[in-house]
């Protein structure tokens, strides 16, 4: 089975980021992201890709951009010009991840069959990018695990896994 999973960290008001950066620093969430996505293809928009200093190790990167002249000088990166093109590239993979940003999540929601969401407990009014609402009629919460705030994590958060009904 081909699993297309959205993976994101979003605040209680669905805020994802501002100025192409995250609004929080959650080391345990980074570790979970790395553990879940390593060895798989990650699909993202150009701005999300450009927020990384370099490609993430042990992952194939599919970058979606409208810019027909956009190129990337890394073997692990493929540039495509639509979500449909990206989905065609991963159709034979057991598991691939959509990692953002906001517009890509919105477009991919109907194609995904799993969501790995880290719900960051806070409201971030100044965000400029948001995760789409998860329609409860189409998704069921399969598991959740709470992580309290601590010395390394300014905000409490909950890992939530949703499966398409």
TrEMBL record:
The leader peptide range reads none
> Pathway it belongs to?
Cofactor biosynthesis; tetrahydrofolate biosynthesis; 5,6,7,8-tetrahydrofolate from 7,8-dihydrofolate: step 1/1
- Check the record and name the Gene3D superfamilies matching this protein: Dihydrofolate Reductase, subunit A (3.40.430.10)
Q: Mind naming one GO cellular-component term on file for this protein?
A: cytosol
List the GO molecular function terms.
Answer: dihydrofolate reductase activity; NADP+ binding
Tell me which residues make up the DHFR domain.
3-164
Q: Any idea which UniProt keywords this protein has?
A: NADP, One-carbon metabolism, Oxidoreductase
Q: For this protein, what reaction is catalysed?
A: (6S)-5,6,7,8-tetrahydrofolate + NADP(+) = 7,8-dihydrofolate + NADPH + H(+)
In short, the EC number is 1.5.1.3
Which BP terms in the Gene Ontology apply to this protein?
dihydrofolate metabolic process; folic acid metabolic process; one-carbon metabolic process; tetrahydrofolate biosynthetic process
Regions annotated as coiled coil = none
Under the heading PROSITE patterns, the entry gives: DHFR_2
> What this chain does, per the record?
Key enzyme in folate metabolism. Catalyzes an essential reaction for de novo glycine and purine synthesis, and for DNA precursor synthesis.
Would you identify the family this protein belongs to, as annotated?
Belongs to the dihydrofolate reductase family.
Question: By what name is this protein known?
Answer: Dihydrofolate reductase
Source species of the chain = Zobellia galactanivorans (strain DSM 12802 / CCUG 47099 / CIP 106680 / NCIMB 13871 / Dsij)
């Amino acid at each position: 089975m081909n699993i297309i999973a959205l993976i994101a960290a979003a605040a209680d008001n669905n805020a994802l980021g501002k100025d192409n950066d995250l609004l929080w620093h959650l080391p345990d969430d980074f570790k979970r992201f790395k553990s879940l996505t390593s060895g798989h293809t990650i699909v993202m928009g150009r701005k999300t890709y450009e927020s990384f200093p370099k490609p993430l190790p042990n992952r194939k990167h599919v970058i979606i951009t409208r810019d027909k002249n956009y190129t990337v000088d890394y073997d692990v990166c493929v540039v495509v010009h639509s979500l449909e093109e990206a989905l065609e590239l991963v159709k034979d993979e057991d598991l691939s991840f959509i990692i953002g940003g906001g517009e890509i999540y919105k477009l991919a929601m109907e194609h995904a069959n799993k969501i790995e969401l880290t719900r960051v407990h806070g409201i971030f009014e100044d965000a400029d990018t948001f995760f789409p609402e998860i329609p409860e009629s189409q998704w069921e919460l399969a598991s959740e695990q709470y992580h309290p705030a601590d010395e390394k994590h300014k905000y409490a958060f909950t890992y939530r896994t949703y499966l398409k009904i």
